[in-house]
Description:
The structure holds two protein chains of two kinds.
Chain A: H1 3-10, H2 14-24, H3 28-45, H4 55-68, H5 100-109, H6 114-124, H7 129-136, H8 140-162
Chain B: H1 5-12, H2 35-63, H3 67-92, H4 100-138, H5 147-158, E1 164-165, E2 168-169, H6 170-217
Antiparallel strand pairs in B: 1-2
Helix pairs in contact in B: 2-3, 3-4, 4-6
Amino acid sequence: MSSDFYTTSILPFAPIIIKICRAYTNTQEDFEDYYQEVCLQIWKSRENFREQSEWSTWIYRLALNVSLTLLKKKKNDPQHFASDSLPTELIEDSHAFADESLNQLYDAIKQLSEVDRAVILLYLEEKSYLEIADIIGTNPNNIGVRIKRIKERLKKILTQNNK
Amino acid sequence: MEKSIETIWKEGFLKNEALVAPKLNDLYNQKSIHIVDKFRRMYKINITAVLIFSIIVLPLSYFTNMPYMGIPMSILFSVVVFFSIKFKNKLDRIETSNNSYLYLSSFNNWVKEMVTFNTKMSRYLYPFVFLSMVMGFWFGSFGGDIPGEVFVNSLLENYPNMYLVFGIPLLMIAGAIFMITILAFFGGRIGNWDINLVYGGIIRKLDRMMSEMEELKASS
C-alpha cells in the first residue's frame, strides 16, 4: 500500500474505522490488528468503489464487513468467534478512551450481538435509518424498532454496571 | 440527570486523543487475518499441493511399476484440482464492499456450497483412492512377477476349490466391495468432520449472524 493512499484516502476517515474496530475487539492488540486489516481490505478493494455512495459510507460498510468476519486471536477467544459472552472482567481493554462514560458505553456495546453492534454504531454516527439499512442490507422499516430495543438493552446494561 | 447514550458518544469523541489511529506496521507484508483471505490462502496451498501430487504420482507409479494406481489417482486428483479452482474463483468474486447482508450471505453460500461439495466428493474420493491402491498392487510388477497372480497362485495351492471371478478370489472381491461401501458411507462424514474441526466456529458464527440479518430484513 502506498503511504500516499493511506494518508489521503484512509487517514482522514480513521475515526470511523477506530470507532467500529473498538466495538468488535477486547484488547489493544486485537484492535490494532483489526484496524490494520480494515486498512488492508480498503486498499485491496479500492478499485471496486463505484462512487455510487460516499467514500465514508463505503468505508463504514467495509469496516463493518471486515470486523464481522475477522479471526480473533486464540489467546483472548479460544472459540475464535464467541466473544459476545465474554464477562466484563475479562475485557482487558475497557479503558481505551479517556472518557470513562464512553468506556462504559463501549463495554455495554460489546455485550450486544455483532449485528446489533453494527446497527447501534451507525445510529450513534447519526446515519439515517435508510443509510443504516443500505449499509447493513436490511429493511429500513425494522431499523427504528431494532434501535429502540438496542437502546433499552444498553441502558439496562449501563445501569447494571453502574450499580 | 443521566446522560443519554447519544450524549455519551458525542462528548466522548470530542477529545481528539480518543481517535488516534494506531501505527501501521509494514502493512503490505502483513498476513491477512480476514477469514475470506485465510480461506483463499489455504485453498491456494491445497490446490497447489494436490496439483503437484497429481503430477508426480504418474512418474512415481511408473518407476514403482504400479501404473494402475498412478493413472487413476492422477485423473482423480486432477478432477479435484479442477473443481477446487472453480471454487476458488467463486471465492475471489466475493465483494467485501457489498452491504453486510449481501457480503455475509455470499460468503455463507460459498462456505455451504464448499462443505456440500466436499462431503459429496469425499464419498467418492476415499473409495476411489482405495480401489486405485488395490489395483496398483494387484496388477503391479515386482521383480517380473505380478503380485496379484502370485498371491492367487499361493492361495490356490492351499485352497484349490476356491471360487474365482476373472481370476480374482470371490471372497477378496466381496471384501473389497465391503471396504468400498464402508468408505463411501463414511467418506462424506469424514470429510464433513474434517471441515467442521477447522471451520466449525466460523460456520456457526455465520449461521447466527445470517439468521439475525434475516430477522432484521423481514418486513414487520
